[in-house]
Amino acid sequence: MTSPWISQITSDEFTVTRAYQKNPNVDRVVDIPCLDKFSIIVQLEDFADHRLWRGGRLAYSGGHRKASVSLPFMGDGLRCQHRAAYDNVRFNIPRATFDDLQQENGMKRFERFVYDQNDQDEILYHLARALLPTLIQSSARNQLFLDHILLATCDHVYRRYVRGASNSVYGKCKLTTRQVLLAKDIIATHLAGDLSVQTIAAECDLSRSHFSRAFKQTTGMAPHAWLMQMRFEKAKELMMSQPLKPISSIAQECGFSDQSHLTRVFTRMLGTSPAAWRRQRRASTSLLGEEPPTK
């Protein structure tokens, strides 16, 4: 029997928890806090044996396959029993968060999600996995990215697991030229800050859901991806214009959590580290007979 490994991200609008335990106490029954929240549980690996009680009655006994999901309402008096090793990501989202999003998008209010215990959902699985680096290293937290995950998760579960949900509110939409320029300017001037989708959307006179979808449909990139691209471009610019400046300082100035974060992004983008890229560029400049700037 081992203690569970738990990592968590908490915000005003949702909490994400990853829980892993190789040898749980198979006899222990856990009382889940009774809250006005929906829990969206995504299995990262096969879960061989689990029991769930709802309102004092056994509601499920069995296993869960990798990528399967459960979406219980936490106000139903839940209890669970982990009878095998498990590894999952759990989104706990208050009803108020869904109410706000429904109001923004003209969606009907719902009371419960309709699902089967062994529904496999590749979209939720990949959204959960996308959060793993942030769950492991909280310093890499990016509010635009968390907003993107929240909106994408809520949009998806509404469309798939709410009976009678309409897809009509998810039609194609684009930003005006003015809105695109404004949004990009706000992002560019907040590279080192913790910018939220709500902040940019308000400046564009849009709801955050509308803005997030319209920005991606207009630019081909989600707001958080555009922010990361701008940070990457700024880092390249500083490495060339200030060749003696430490890469760790450049990472901090551009909004990366640390030098390792910048290195991971650089390697993903260019297939090489920042230090190696700077050496290569300086060598190329020298061959052309040019001297790089020193200030």
Give a brief rundown of this model.
The protein is built from eleven helices and nine strands. The protein is of the alpha+beta class.
CATH topology of the largest domain: Jelly Rolls
Question: How much is the radius of gyration in Å?
Answer: 23 Å
State the order of secondary-structure elements, H for helix, E for strand: EEEEEEEEEHHHHHHHHHHH
CATH class of the largest domain: Mainly Beta
What structural class is derived from the secondary structure elements? alpha+beta
Number of H- or I-type helical stretches? 11
Which of globular, elongated, flat, extended, rod-shaped describes the shape?
A: globular
List the helices and strands and how they pair.
Elements: E1 5-10, E2 15-21, E3 30-31, E4 37-43, E5 47-54, E6 57-64, E7 69-70, E8 78-82, E9 86-94, H1 95-105, H2 122-130, H3 132-136, H4 143-161, H5 177-188, H6 197-203, H7 208-219, H8 223-241, H9 247-253, H10 259-270, H11 274-287
Antiparallel strand pairs: 1-2, 2-9, 3-8, 4-7, 4-9, 5-6, 5-8
Helix pairs in contact: 4-8, 6-7
Question: Can you describe this structure?
Answer:
By secondary structure, this protein is α+β, with helices and mostly antiparallel strands. The protein folds into three domains: 5-136, Sandwich (Jelly Rolls); 172-220; 232-287, Arc Repressor Mutant, subunit A, CATH 1.10.10.60. The protein contains eleven helices and nine strands. The chain has a five-stranded antiparallel sheet. It has a four-stranded antiparallel sheet with strand order 3-8-5-6, with no helix packed on it. Helix 4 packs antiparallel against helix 8. The longest helix has 19 residues, at 143-161. It starts with a strand and ends in an 8-residue tail after the last helix.
